[in-house]
Amino acid sequence: MAxxxxxxxxxxxxxxxxxxxxxxxAFIDAGLMTAWYDSFLNTVExxxxxxxxDNTKTYGKTYYWFQFTTTGIYIHVALGWNAVTHxxxxxxxxxxxxxxxxxxxxxYQIITLSSTTQTNIIRYTSSxxxxxxxxxxxxxxxxxxxxxxxxAHTLVSWLDLNKVNFQAVINIQSxxxxxxxIMGFVNVCPVTRRSYLSQGSLRANTSSTTYxxxxxxxxxxxxxxxxxxxxxxxxxxxxxxxxxxxxxxNTNDAYTTDVNPVFAGAGYYSYINELLxxxxxxxxxxxxxxxxVQDTLVxxxxxxxxxxxxxxxxxxxxxxxxxxxxxxxVV
Length: 331
Known about the structure:
Blueprint: E1 4-10, H1 16-29, E2 38-42, E3 44-52, E4 61-69, E5 72-78, E6 81-82, E7 87-88, E8 108-112, E9 119-125, E10 133-139, E11 142-146, E12 170-175, E13 180-187, H2 210-213, E14 217-225, E15 242-243, E16 263-264, E17 280-285, E18 296-300, E19 304-311, E20 323-329
Parallel strand pairs: 14-15
Antiparallel strand pairs: 1-9, 2-3, 3-4, 4-5, 5-8, 6-7, 9-10, 10-11, 12-13, 13-14, 16-17, 17-20, 18-19, 19-20
């Protein structure tokens, strides 16, 4: 079953408000919101997305604070927000980092943009479970993919939202070499001290970079072994993760016919109980290293086809290295 795909295009020379509007419409169509919780201009365009993870808990709401300029999109979070005064609420550093809304200095840049280049925001909403939408932002050769969990996703029971706050912007990142390639689900969301991810480095530090440079957490990594006879000591040279069964004879001589499977319905985050729906998956490709984001991986023409949301071409493919890709089924 294919995902529901929609593209929101903003033509050059666009304004930051137009990019914010396009992303907002993608969020609305995905069921992430009915409107921005707050929307205002203070030198830079500010937009607030409210996600209510559990209204019965003290810290059950998260405010994803987006900023837009002609050169990029930026994000931070707050645990409370005043939509009248347009500032975060609560205790500084615990519940928000800064009240400055006229600068991007305190935010994490998720993508670099050029206003003279068309920007496309592509929405991939699962038709199996519509609470899952992956977003892809493209501007020329720059792209960024992400997923924001909602209240429809069940958090693990040991996250007590009366004590900590849940916040996540999950991005796919990869590394490659000749021995093993890794595709990982990484939370790139900035943190506050009240976050469930808060680190000791935040305790005595008020530098803005500390709140978004030391927080990245990869909880699910998948390894595609190199298609060659390699020492197992090199398996983890790019990190650790879950080895997936690649059906290549040089990788595993139990296979007599080479196959390149798509792994669907995978686990993606240790703090959420559900697996990804089966129309979102990943694969490792050995035969081509000239692919591009939004190319199609054809399993069976007209029957099963997947679009590449994320891709890292491996310079060792072909013949040995694997190119990891994250996929949405489009046929």
